[in-house]
Here is the input.
Amino acid sequence: MKKIAETIVPINDLISERWSPRAFDSNHVIEENLIKSLFEAARWAPSCYGDQPWQFILFKKEDTTSWVSVLNCLSVGNQNWAMDTSIIIVICANKNFNHNNEPNRWSHYDTGAAAENICLQATSIGLSTHQMGGFDQEKIRKLSNIPKQFDILSCMAVGKQLDESKLSKVQKDKETQVRSRKPLGDIYFVNEWK
Ligand SMILES: Cc1cc2nc3c(=O)[nH]c(=O)nc-3n(C[C@H](O)[C@H](O)[C@H](O)COP(=O)(O)O)c2cc1C
Here is the structure.
């Protein structure tokens, strides 16, 4: 199923085609070079001072023990569909600048930009992404030995989308929901706050 964004004016196809499905092909293995292309896309995101505050941790379904461990860090609702994806990327941001170790108040902003680059790169190679805030931070921190200096922002599941027929009723209802957004005119002001 495609859920192309309905836009008032035309936008880039990759942006309108990206969405967050739940039905994935549990047998799909993503080729190593395609996985690398996701991180390559992230690498070229802009960042304050060019600091590149992001750090990613990759989990592949083939590494069964680690895969089960990371799935266990997700909320049950997320586990239900994320188990069928092919990889999970844990997305972290350095709280401090690399160049002087001072607090970096743009690190989440920059890491979000890198994450969106991953989503769009995935879309461009026929893969789908679904990000998750529903996970146990401390469990993942312990599992992957993530230093305190890094915030754990999200987990991104990536895989090959399937038709929604395999989903449970609850998941199918979510999958087929119409995508909605605030009206275009509501998200920007001209010159001053209204
Ligand atoms: C930081 C973040 C956290 C999210 N957390 C979850 C989550 O825990 N579970 C889930 O099913 N979707 C989650 N989502 C997906 C959003 O619900 C989804 O992106 C949003 O509804 C817009 O839909 P679209 O991505 O299909 O355009 C999350 C998205 C982001 C960016």
Observations:
- The radius of gyration is 18 Å.
- The first helix runs from residue 13 to 17.
- The beta strands are 54-60, 87-94, 128-132, 150-159.
- Residues 19-20, 78, 131-134, 154, 179 surround flavin mononucleotide (CB under 6 Å).
